[in-house]
Task: structure prediction
Amino acid sequence: MQHWRRALVAACFLFPARAWAWGTEGHEVVAHLAAVNLTSRARGAVSALLGGETEAVMAIAANWADEIRDDRPDTSSWHFVNIEIDADLHYQPARDCSGGNCVVAQILRDEAILKSTAPAPQKAEALKFLIHFLGDIHQPLHAADNHDRGGNLVSVSLRRGRPESLHHVWDDDVVAALGRDPFVVARHLDHSFSPAQKREMMTVVSPAVWAESSAAIAKLVAYPQGREGFDNRDVEKDAQVAGQQLARAGYALAGLLNRVFQ
Result:
């Protein structure tokens, strides 16, 4: 195991696992995949802001925004946007992002900070938020709602008959079905796309478009009829969709940072 991977494994024991979007593993997958698609200039800038080898510090920072939520409750609404699936799926700020407090608006604010002349500590915080929020906005149940708190009020039986929320299944179970090592999962996903496909995903620059795409997937995949019969076959099927969303998040993050630090 490379030195930075040993450091990353050790660091994971310092931070408690939290049951928020994608869980810790999913967010680390996004960070790993983004890191290997950064330009040399962007890698250098990220390394300088976060203080270490780029891929390692990005993976460690990937869950920071969840870890601080208890101490900074004002940031909680930045992790999601509620686009109701029984309404127009096009993002409407006045309807979907009250007071500008949602993941779409916060991504734009953090990007603006990175482009500004703000002090390095403020830029480092904005960068850590972006690493996390690009994952959040691509989790379908963090972009859509069915009057059920993003699937949190939908109970399904999966593990030996024990009920879980649909949101939790998407946070953890569908990601775990891809594999247990975020580094390996990220490399596998990265090898699954052609250079042209990667370029296309890296050129999408609108958080609103990311949110709308995620909401559509929630409506078509995460909220189908008969969810009471959810079983391991559904997990395997949904894992393929989750893998694509994690990849889109990683490429979107890489594209955003490459543009910011060009």
User: Anything to note?
Assistant: The longest strand covers residues 155-159. Strands lie at 83-84, 144-145, 155-159, 162-165.
